[in-house]
Amino acid sequence: MPANLFEWENHLSALREMLRGATQGRGRLALVSGAVASGKTTLLNTFAEQAIESGELLLEATGSRAERDLPFGIVRKIFDNGAMPADVRSEVIALLDGNALESTAAGRMRVMSQISSALLRMVDDRTLVVLVDDVHCGDDQSLQFLLHLARRVRQAKVLIVLTESPRLRQEQFTFHAELLRQPNCVRMRLHMLTESGVAEALSGTLSATVAARLAPECHRVSGGNPMLLRALLEDWRTVGEHGEAQQRPAPGEAFAHAVLGCLHRGEPEALEIARGVAVLGDARSPRLLGQLLDLGANTVQQGVQDLHQCAILEHNAFRDEVARTAVLDATPATARGALHARAARLLHADGASALDVARQLVSARQDAERWTVPVLREAAEFALVEEELEFALRCLECAHHACPPGPERTALKARLVSIAWRIGPATAESHLPELTEDAGRGRLAPRDVAPITSYLAWSGRLDAAAGAVSALARSAATGDDPAMTAAVSASAQWLTMLSPPLRDRLPTVGTGTTGATAGAPRDMADLAHAHAAATLSAVLAEGQADRAVIEAERVLQRYHLSDSTLQPLVVALMALVLAGRLDLALSWCERLQGECSSRRVPTWQALLSAVRAEIALRQGDLQVAAHQARTAMSRISVQGWGVGLGLLLSTLIQAETGMGHYDEAMALLEQPLPEELFQTLPGLFYLRARGRCHLATGRYHAALGDFMAAGELMGAWRMDTPLLTPWRADAAETWLALGDPGRARALAEEQLRLGPEDARLRGALLVVLARTDELKRRVPRLKEAVEILEGGDDRIQLAVALGELGRAYRALGDFNRGRVLVRKAWHVAKTCGADPLCRELMPRHADPGELAAAAAQPGQATTEAQRDVEALTEAEVRIAVLAAHGNTNREIASKLFVTVSTVEQHLTRIYRKLNVKRRRDLPAKLSDSSLTGTV
Q1: 162 has which bridge partners?
Q2: Is the entire prediction scored with pTM above 0.85?
Q3: Which of 3, 30, 4 is nearest to 17 (CA)?
Q4: How many whole angstroms separate alpha carbon 864 and alpha carbon 858?
Q5: CB count, 10 Å around CB of 566?
Q6: Least confident of 265-274, 471-480, 686-695, 702-711
Q7: 233, 198 in Cβ contact below 8 A?
Q8: Helix (H, G, I), strand (E, B) or coil at 310
Q9: Phi-psi domain of 572 (left: phi exceeds 0; alpha: psi -120 through 50; beta: other)
Q10: How far apart are CA 275 and CA 330, in angstroms?
């Protein structure tokens, strides 16, 4: 099709008019030129059909490059036609067979004269129409014959229509010029479709509305090439047939085949040049393209021009990536690899960027040469900035293969592992064995020792990690490398922190953040690991929670988030969690999550989500805890979690158990675990979670076994602190469930004697002790527990204590106070998502609406409460409501966007105005309904 349907009809009308003139004895000649796939053949075929319908004598032929060296090849095709009278065909074939090899010009002219005379004898009764497609591919003798015939048909009933490419061979210029000199010759040009032409073409098969909508994108992708346009439309319809909603046409398989078809129909070098452009990415440098393909500059420029004319290229690049991919995929693998390798060398010599050179080297899929190593390493770092993680990995893999064994090769492997770990620890698994061997040979650089050791330990290769550190320690002892000594010290501290049983197998380290090598030069990675390990040890081994909080904040302030500091930062967050500073842990965790939220760092996001889940669990926000834990699990595969799976499953199991999702919790217990898990701290978290699940589902002896096993491990590791896991409190609760209050009391009292002073734990222990006391002594313990827990973060434990206190008051006959406290406990538990606790507290008030209705007191109490409310300011009412519903001061400050100090000041005034001493008296003095109505 030409540029639009109107022009198309004009071309056909012109040919029909020429045919009428030829029928009247005025011979005509038409020369149709256009780029490859511009519609020349379609136009010729359409006219041929009309000529046959008119009863004309039609002779057709098509030029072929394969037959270009065959003398009179096109002439033979013209006369080898079923419409040709047999006697004329025999005569011409005889002339060709007998004289085709005539060597003299006069002899060839005599043969052509005889052939044309035989041809013209047939036009007495009928008009002769000779159509030759792709005449530019014809042999020289046939071109001379056509030119000879053209000169003789001016007064004959003959119409000759030829199609040609605008790209002519040198020897065709004379033929072309002589044809155009003929007074009866008309030249027609075919162009690619304009956007309006595309719309007109589409409207032949689609509605006008759809055609107008698709036209802009179709024109952009196809460039108005009719062949590509038809293929694009075919792909669009194919997608529609498979039921996929496709608003815009997208090139697919048919389009790719059409691109290759265009290239094969063009000049021989067109496909070769297209391959070169596909490899380099564009054709902006004809010189570079010529060097790549070993072609002359003029040939390259002409070929690029041809590709632009047929709409394969636009602005020296492929219009669509599908076209580029199709060309590359159709290139034999060996040839394609060679082109990429040669392109890399040329680009490197030409001063191209490391990224551009590396893309060629990676695409070559060949063994890289030694010179490529620094280029690939530099490109990998640039790729990381652009978040191209897989490409960065490929660069380092190629560099690693090209590098001979030695420290440099080991450093490349270490960097490769750190990037792979960013994508997912499972991705790095296959590289760790080689690194372990290199560490044993002393090839690890000091900056890589701590990160690689932490990766080995994470994957459960505790023995390999310990062996590597010991080997590096021996190597450092025989040399004079303080940096290696410092790195070994940091790694030993890290492994000891993660897996206390390794303590006796590792080199002796100091107790400070820098250990025995305080004067040695330190790399950021081993500093971060040593500092974080010492921070957690301050909580677990030394019981210095306050110092651990200070040190943890220093770690979080000092080190930025990176591949080598991720695990130390996570450990610092966990130190804050274990030390009971959930507010600080939450603030830092959300800040770090914000830093990597828009980046492609699945492992970073997964670990931070796991910590966020643990914080939410300890705050009693079970739904957030479960959501964050499952988010973490979705970021990286379960296999990639290594021993970290213990912490993640622990949080998720406890959250699901607390919400009453027992089936989900039990299913999580079926998850296979790393064998080394119970040699690590995460194993203790898992034991507690499994025990809590067993306790909630009535498997008391199984629960007791898990809690006692945790206690035995902590004792053996000299790390028996409830900050890690309160196994005595858990076991005491289990003994109560088993009906043995004596053992429960003994364990609770033992834990209170041992310390340390932790508000959350002390409150829980007081509740356990209260349940073992006689009724009259129970209330004071429970009141103390509530006092302690109201100032903390654990809302679930607060709900338990409030509920126990309410039941104690009811048992003593104070039904009103008991009812208010139980109702408050229910509300707190409900906000936590702890449905089993809600059912235990108030089975008949499972709906918040029922609870609100039950909260209103009749008669005088309501009137007094309303008068009390009038004495409060609006801000004081808001704080009173939240305090009455069990929110801590920090939670109130967060919800109202004020400081904790402001909340405390308001509560002081509220207590004075309402004549109460503490927040748990608020519901007794003011009903929920009156407060809520005022707010």
Answers
A1: 31, 132
A2: no
A3: 30
A4: 11
A5: 24
A6: 471-480
A7: no
A8: coil
A9: alpha
A10: 9
